[in-house]
Structures
1.
Amino acid sequence: MTALSSIDLTFDDTIDKAIRGEWDALERAGFSSLGAHRSDSNRPHLTLVVGTPLELVDHAATNDALPLPLPVTIGPPVLFGSGDRRVLARLVTPTAALLELQASVHASVRQEGLVAHSHPGVWVAHVTLARRIRLDDLPQALGLLGDDIVGEATGMRLWNAVERTVTPLSANPAEVAD
């Protein structure tokens, strides 16, 4: 399998703690939660673009002029995939500012190697909670999720899947510390 790199938004403490709480609840219930991944690079995030390789060709979309912090609402659950096992995520309300930012970041990377669901108009803003959820177990998993979460996206990062490194793309001090 090819390693996919990404450019992601990261969140303020309100959203970060709430999503980690849902990861933990899912993990305690025996689901394949992202909370089980204990790497320092693993934190709640909203992926803007995914590709292999992922190369910035225009840094203007990922510099200090970013519209951060950006208000975001983490909303209802959504399932991705097909078959008996699915990815469980929560939708992020697609505001005009968020869609503009995603399109700008999309335009800032080399287009070869981008996955199809990274393109504006196709991209679905979401935060992944767990993978390989059995459809039969979905009611239990959904019962562990809370209400909408309102907060801010405060940082942007580049995840290099080949080198397994995170590079901050914003001036958010919390991004640099992680």
2.
Amino acid sequence: VVKLADEIDRYVNTSCIMSGWGYTNKSLWTEANRLQKAITMLISSTDCKKFWPQFADALDEELFLCVYNKK
């Protein structure tokens, strides 16, 4: 758990480095057994809701960062 910056909007469209043990293959739901790192782009809440409409109602701008990898 991390505290988000108070002025999160000023970081939109900047690089974001994340780490964790999450899923590495969304079609097989394969979990990583080693710590993984991803470099992504922080996007606005508006864009986040466009990319992930199924989660739009659950997204709380004070609790979540939304990132997107254009690859």
3.
Amino acid sequence: MTVSLKTLVNRSIRNMGEVHPVVKDRAVTMIERAYKKGILAQISDGLRTYAEQQALYDKGRTAPGNIVTYAQPGYSYHNFGLAVDFFLVSDDGKRALWTVNKDWKQVAAIGKEIGFEWGGDWSPFKDFPHLQLTGGLSLSDLRAGKKPIFAVQTSYSPPEDDGLLEKGENGTAIKRLQEQLLDMGYRLPKYGANGDFGAETETVVKAFQKDRGIKVDGIVGPVTRQELKEAAKPVLPDETYWVKTPLFCGNGVRAVQGALAANNPPFYPEKGARNNGIDGYYGPKTADAVERFQSYFNLKEDGIYGPNTRKKLLQVLK
């Protein structure tokens, strides 16, 4: 499946850092126009500190590797947030492509159309990934503290949401997805609900899709969203649970814990612990969560999950 424009833009914005807003806007415009032509481009670098510039300058000189730049700190438009580097990506968005071919030159041409200078036009050292927007200022002007004034200063407006959540994206929607998967008993042991759709989240989404008998691709689209919605509907056990030895355990207890966590406000067995304490065991912490729920809804506060507590849970979670 072809990587989405939204993914390419989001990755590029992260990689650019705090570049000038006009640089950001035009870089995104370039990516959008290239995408319409069937060319997948992404920004790899933007604002660069003096220390980062020095590290690049040292390559091939005092550090291992080949020479990658002739610009010392303060002698690159990157250091002032006025330059970006780009590259091409594979159709699935998983591989960087650095061959300077006709597609690469087409992206550079788009960049030049909207005001960028391209490093591929330089001589003798050609910097094919490089694009800069000088605003009529020299590097000595910028080092002296002058600021560029562009004729039109625009701000980036995100492309229309394609409705998909997939690897490489981040934000609150991803965090909510992760929390929902955790509440259903899936595990994200390394990163948890951190708001980043990485390999761990992709693996769990695939596991959910497999469990629900739908297409397994690791992408949250309309079908997977509907299955998530269906899976979130409470199916609560008819049994009565209380703290005893040995503890009640299993999917029924886990369903009760998940329903408590899905309430607004949530009643976690142990907030901040792994899966917020949703572990399938009806111990003292789960009983405490039940008691807090009972208190909130003016039920008998005994920490026992029984018919009245079940009825109220079903009511509030509809």
4.
Amino acid sequence: MSNIETLLEDARRHYQRADLHRHFNADMDRVTKAQVALDAAEDTMLALSNYESGGIGSDDGEKYLRLYGCLQAVFVQQDAIRELHRLFVGDFAEPADISAWKQLRELRNLTIGHPIEKGLGKQQRSRTFITRVSLRSDGFDYQVWHQGTGNTSFESADLSALYATYEKEAALYLKKIIAALSCVPDISC
């Protein structure tokens, strides 16, 4: 069991005893946002744990499906953690661009979120494709065409290392959320 799984279980224990209705002054928008965010964080953890234990698979179609699912699960988990942090701790300071949190988010956006055309508005457009033969459980290679230069760059994603670092970063946010949840009054019997 990963550290994030353990922390999410701890958050769920606090959540189940907490009187969120009273904590949020009967604001059902915030109560339901907290409910959905915690559920989403836990559900994505199930998907990510499955990816970690089962790898990427052997069939090309399965590899793409599992890679897309892994990156999307991280993206949704980040959104859930961000919302829980905002609800229980307060403002969420965006992680630095060099953080694994941001790098995984950008990798998802670039490779599976907007591969055909990323960078609208003031950003230079890019187009990305994953090199199929490179798909493996710990990462993959991809190529990015850059509109500004007309050049193609060849990149490599070390998914295992990024995810391991991301878990540590996410754990820091979850610990703050749990500390705040521990101060929420209990449900009155």
